[in-house]
Design a protein that fits this description.
Layout: E1 7-10, E2 19-24, E3 30-34, H1 47-50, H2 52-57, E4 67-68, E5 77-78, H3 81-99, E6 104-108, H4 114-128, E7 133-135, H5 142-152, E8 169-173, H6 177-180, H7 182-194, E9 199-203, E10 216-218, H8 225-238, H9 244-250, E11 251-252, H10 254-261, H11 266-273, H12 277-289, E12 293-297, H13 299-302, H14 307-320, E13 330-333, H15 340-345, H16 362-372, H17 385-393, E14 399-403, H18 407-410, H19 414-423, E15 426-431, E16 444-447, E17 456-459, E18 464-468, H20 481-491, H21 502-512, H22 525-531, E19 534-535, E20 562-563, E21 583-588, H23 604-607, E22 614-618, H24 619-624, E23 632-637, E24 641-649, E25 656-660, E26 694-700
Parallel strand pairs: 6-7, 6-14, 8-9, 8-12, 9-10, 11-20, 12-13, 14-15, 15-16, 21-25, 22-24
Antiparallel strand pairs: 1-2, 2-3, 4-5, 4-16, 17-18, 18-19, 21-26, 22-25, 23-24, 23-26
Helix pairs in contact: 3-20, 4-20, 4-21, 5-14, 8-10, 8-11, 8-12, 8-14, 11-12, 17-19
The structure holds iron/sulfur cluster.
Iron/sulfur cluster binds near residues 11, 49 and 183.
């Protein structure tokens, strides 16, 4: 279905969600450019987005038709879609009949479109009768979801990207936007270039590219973020740099936070964080003197066994200073994936309900189940990401349906995940290419349409909802993910899945949000196509969207106040280092790769930046181990080991090493596979894994 028309769509990589113009010429050659009319990126694209045309055009490795194993030891064989749905429905029905609905689960992705997310959630919670649907977004932002809910009453990013150009102080914690949210960072960098008085504080155990533009880099010891934020809070209180009128009128629980902030003196806090006390004072001075203050954070805070404590202690700083609900101010969680926000809207997690309703609330559950017309929705959360794979290993979960994600590489403690997938009675993998290591475990492999090959919507980090049109036909027999799900639901015999297109699914989702905080009942494909993107809520058909939340200083809590939360702990609870494992491994992203490289790994241009995994190590730690630049090292944790080339510098703290998370089993020898090492401890509330902290030892590789 190629045409000469220029199509407006959205980048399929990160949560910045840049607008892209797509052209397809008569020969079918695809070209992409930044959309200068799109408010989020104003025409800019980063290296990943700029090379999306290569990914869209490359059909090598694509799954072209359904493939099925007739039994575990047989190879996958081509089958028809009808046969695939018949088998999937038969196996799911039989397992559910024997072991109950909680014996099956769905593991999906922040790259799914909102309609796909909505349908899987509806099918699982509303019809199968289990809350066992979770997502790889659990791995990146569930601590932020809990932090926002506890503080603001709802999972709600209060600000817009346009606030960046209005702020005069930024605290960027546990994030490297220069590499991981490049266009957002470019907006910040330009703002700073034009307004040198703007202050940027970066909190990170590594000196990353983002630090190049910072006025202050707080290179804290891993796991000491809560101590740092509490110390800044204490200094703000002592120096009377807090907004007492705002605190009195619009917040609750201030005294508890004040008490906790005073647990340590500034000197004690600085010592524990491993930074000069003057730097804490300086950070508090910048924040306290700011007219408009924005905090930004992502995985460095979220991916922790104390992720919620880190989030609430940072959110407290915005409340203390009254920096929320006004232009240029607010706490801004940067989402990792392109539609992590959309997934949250439809309740696409084991602990959430659709339309930001509350799973623990019986009236909310009834509203949603009545709307869907299926069965009763269970009150208890289902298995979260790591719990799902634990449940497979323990035999409690028998079948898992994996959509658009590669847990064999992306989950912590990947050897355990592999064991779980081998142990499962039935594994369905629905994806675009064989490039994903997880397809090797599939009993049923379903070909899905990719970017440009299907229609739907996504929501970016600033709550901006956009329409993504179908531009080209999918190869072979691949189908849109939404259609795969509704046809499976039909094969299961469920009513309420007789959709003709994704627009009908979207209308249903919008209607369900009516009267909620995220009300988008004023939206439709027609409006999104004709009028462009909208920021939720959009509660009626002429509403123009909401760039900023809480401008009336009324929050989504029952008492309409923002709630201070004393963090549950000051101290890190990650696994201990000892003589055998004395170093702390931090994992993260590099500029030109995305997740497990199933797409970016195929683009030659992107491989020129960093072509292979590397271990970043402080030169002092390396010297003590007789390791030199470029040596191959063995990195060993309590769960596994990898070999990887060493890169030395002084930008990373002593006793800390860093491995990118993108690489899986390359060269068949676990070369640089970070998640062989990471541990699957999770935050007790958000259930987000502790990817940023595990105990390791590094030795020089010696050939036997
Ligand atoms: Fe795509 Fe993110 Fe780059 Fe924008 S910043 S082009 S959304 S990867």
């Amino acid at each position: 279905m190629n045409s000469n028309k220029t199509h407006k769509t959205i980048c399929s990589y990160c949560g910045v969600g840049c607008g892209i113009l797509v052209d397809v010429d008569a020969k079918g050659t695809i070209s992409v450019d930044g959309d200068s009319d799109y408010p989020s990126n104003k025409g800019m694209l980063c290296s990943k987005g700029r090379n999306l045309n290569y990914v869209a055009q490359d059909t090598t490795d694509r799954i072209l038709y359904p493939e099925m194993k007739w039994s575990r030891n047989h190879p996958l064989q081509r089958v028809s879609w009808d046969a695939a749905f018949e088998r999937a429905a038969a196996v799911f029905k039989s397992i559910i009949a024997k072991h109950g609905p909680d014996s099956v689960g769905f593991y999906v992705s922040g790259q799914c479109l909102t309609e796909e997310y909505y349908l899987i959630n509806k099918l699982t919670k509303g019809f199968i009768g289990t809350n066992n649907i979770d997502t790889n977004s659990r791995l990146c932002m569930s601590s932020a979801v809990v932090g926002y809910k506890k503080t603001l009453g709802e999972d709600s990013v209060p600000i817009s990207y346009e606030d960046i150009e209005l702020a005069d102080c930024f605290l960027i914690a546990g994030a490297n936007p220069a590499w991981c949210h490049p266009i957002l960072y470019r907006r910040l960098e330009k703002h700073k270039e034009e307004n040198p008085q703007v202050k940027i504080i970066v909190v990170d155990p590594r000196k990353t590219q983002t630090c190049a533009g910072a006025d202050l880099h707080l290179q804290i010891l891993p796991g000491t973020d809560v101590i740092l934020f509490n110390a800044i809070a204490r200094r703000l209180i002592e120096k009377r740099k807090i907004d007492s009128a705002f605190i009195k009128k619009h917040t609750a629980n201030y005294e508890a936070v004040k008490e906790m902030a005073y647990t340590l003196t500034l000197k004690e806090a600085a010592k524990k964080c491993g930074i000069p006390v003057g730097d804490i004072r300086k950070a508090a001075e910048y924040i306290g003197n700011a007219k408009k203050f924005i905090s930004m954070w992502t995985m460095g805070l979220n991916q922790s066994v104390i992720g919620v404590a880190k989030n609430v202690s940072l959110l407290n700083l915005s409340l203390l200073t009254g920096q929320i609900g006004k232009p240029g101010a607010g706490p801004f969680s940067l989402t990792g994936q392109p539609n992590a926000m959309g997934g949250r809207e439809v309740g696409g997690m084991a602990s959430l309900l659709a339309a930001h309703k509350n799973l623990g609330n019986a009236a909310h559950r009834k509203e949603v189940s009545d709307f869907w017309g299926g069965g009763e929705i269970q009150a208890e959360p289902g298995y979260t990401a790591t719990e799902m794979f634990d449940a497979l290993n323990e035999g409690k979960l028998k079948a898992v349906w994996i959509v658009c994600t590669n847990p064999a590489v992306s989950m912590p403690n990947s050897n355990k995940v592999e064991r779980a997938l081998k142990k499962a009675k039935f594994v369905v993998v629905q994806d675009i290419s064989h490039n994903s290591e997880t397809t090797k475990f599939a009993d049923l492999l379903l070909p899905a349409a990719g970017w440009l090959e299907k229609e739907g919507t996504m929501t970016n980090s600033e709550r901006r909802i956009s329409h993504l049109p179908k531009v080209i036909d999918a190869p072979g027999e691949a189908l849109p993910d939404a259609e795969i799900i509704w046809r499976f639901a039909q094969a299961m015999g469920y009513k309420g899945f007789d959709y003709k297109n994704s627009s009908e699914v979207y209308d249903e989702h919008c209607l369900l949000t009516k009267g909620t905080e995220i009300d988008i009942s004023g939206l439709s494909y027609e409006r999104l196509i004709n009028e462009g993107s909208f920021q939720w809520p959009v509660p009626h058909k002429t509403h123009k969207g909401t760039p900023r939340l809480f401008t009336d200083r009324k929050f989504f809590t029952n008492d309409k106040k923002a709630h201070f939360n004393a963090p549950s702990t000051l101290y890190n609870k990650s696994e201990e280092t000892d003589n055998n494992y004395p170093l702390i491994l931090n994992s993260g992203r590099v500029r030109d790769q995305w997740h497990t490289r199933t797409k970016t790994g195929k683009v030659k241009r992107l491989l020129t930046h960093i072509p292979q995994p590397y271990l970043e190590m402080n030169a002092v730690d390396a010297y003590l181990r007789k390791i030199k630049e470029g040596d191959i090292a063995v990195v060993k944790s309590r769960r596994g080991q990898v070999q990887v080339k060493v890169q030395l510098n002084y930008d990373i703290r002593e006793s800390v090493v860093f491995l990118p998370m993108h690489w899986g089993k390359v060269l068949n020898n676990d070369f640089g596979r970070a998640n062989n090492l990471t541990n699957d401890l999770v935050d007790p509330v958000s259930k987000e894994p502790d990817f940023k902290y595990c105990a390791v030892e590094v030795t020089k590789f010696v050939k036997e």
